[in-house]
Design goal:
The complex is a heterodimer of chains A (218) and B (81).
Chain A lengths: L2 E5 L6 H11 L4 E5 L10 E4 L19 H11 L4 E4 L1 H8 L6 E3 L7 E9 L14 E8 L3 E3 L2 H9 L3 E5 L11 E6 L5 E4 L17 H8 L1
Parallel strand pairs in A: 1-2, 1-3, 3-4, 4-11
Antiparallel strand pairs in A: 5-8, 6-7, 6-9, 9-10, 10-11
Chain B lengths: L1 E10 L6 H12 L11 E9 L4 H16 L5 E6 L1
Classes of the chains: A alpha/beta (218), B alpha+beta (81).
Chain lengths: 218, 81
């Protein structure tokens, strides 16, 4: 199981994700520069967090047009796993691989703290055997306020595509307390605002996030 | 010849605008009680080469808005040529 981690100008969680996949989970990982194409032989692609293109215009709006994204869209359409974390989630929404948009937090403040998530919905590559469980990991964002029209939200709920919900209310104003969703032809595209890679080793305080990576790698 | 197109990107009606609400509250605190609502948007100047008929310019600007300048899930846009 080989994981490709895309680095955009301004990505800053790519090394954390690489460390967790390669060193904490012991799986092969490689960086993919946003101007390159996806190398052959990848089993999953991760769009990490950060501030691609300085968040200019809208978060993720410019990254979506990086050359690598053509391949990522194709990879996703083939039903292969694509995970977007934080800014990666914003890029997936901007590129149309996932519905909705991440707006400015209702408080207008950058929020950096641990949150507890409930895993819901149908199974995905990231959440095998985890439905119904709660996981704690940090959020760190100013634009995590998930929005979609009521019809889209109802559809997502109906299909079991709401994957992660904040327990005790969304810190950022997200519709229906949504922290992460899935899409794609085989529920293979997953986006979430919290950072599982920052809670993946007990020595660093928590390892709930590692369970998502272990699911992806299994 | 270059000409300037003006693009206004605004939040759709019904989409909450916490920045606008904060500015609204600040204006009230400053004594401008007549203000009942504030909505923030973006103003974008796009300088283009004047070589296509205006209808074509407009069509291409609309395409730019739909593809990049606005996120039509939450935003409307208006183009002035």
């Amino acid at each position: 199981m080989k994981i490709g981690i895309v680095t955009f100008p301004g990505s800053n969680c790519d090394h954390d994700v690489y460390h967790v996949v390669k060193h904490a989970c012991g799986a092969p990982a490689e960086y993919v520069w946003h101007k390159d194409r996806l190398p052959a032989g990848l089993d999953a692609v991760i769009l990490p967090g950060g501030f691609s293109y300085g968040d200019y215009l809208r978060c993720g709006a410019l990254a979506r047009f990086s050359p690598v994204m053509e391949d990522v869209v194709e990879f996703a359409k083939q039903g292969r796993p694509v995970l977007g974390i934080c800014n990666g989630f914003q890029i997936l929404c901007e590129s149309g691989l996932l519905p909705g948009v991440l707006m400015r937090n209702a408080s207008l403040k950058f929020i950096c703290r641990d949150v507890t998530l409930r895993v819901e919905g149908g199974e995905t590559p990231l959440t095998r055997g985890l439905a119904g469980q709660t996981l704690t990991m940090p959020v760190a964002h100013a634009e995590g306020n998930y929005f979609a029209d009521a019809e889209t939200l109802d559809r997502l709920e109906g299909e079991g595509s709401v994957l992660f919900r904040y327990v005790g209310g969304a810190p950022n104003g997200a519709a229906r307390d949504i922290a992460g969703i899935c899409g794609g032809p085989r529920r293979n595209v997953v986006g979430l605002m919290p950072h599982p890679e920052r809670a993946a080793e007990a020595i660093l305080g928590r390892d709930d996030g590692r369970r998502l990576f272990e699911s992806l790698l299994s | 010849m270059a000409k300037k197109a003006r693009v206004y990107v605004t939040l759709k009606r019904g989409v909450l605008d916490p920045q606008g609400s904060a500015v609204n509250r600040a204006l009230h605190a400053m004594g401008y009680g007549e203000v009942s609502d504030v909505r923030l948007g973006k103003y974008i100047e796009v300088t283009i080469d004047e070589k296509a008929p205006e209808a074509e310019e407009r069509r291409r600007l609309e395409e730019m808005c739909k593809k990049l300048l606005a996120n039509t899930v939450i935003e409307d846009f208006r183009i002035e040529l």
